[in-house]
Amino acid sequence: MNLVAIIEPIPTDQTGIAERKVSEISVEADNYEDGFAELRGQVPEGWRLMNVQRD
Prior knowledge:
Structural class: alpha+beta
């Protein structure tokens, strides 16, 4: 199973507004739970997962 995630930077202040850039990461896993855990491990410090889907 291939999982694809969209990630974006976490805003640095309380306005909730950050520079609007996104990135895509993906993993191949045997099941959703393992793939999701692997995706979370790939999210850089200061970024957050916005969307995860099966490909």
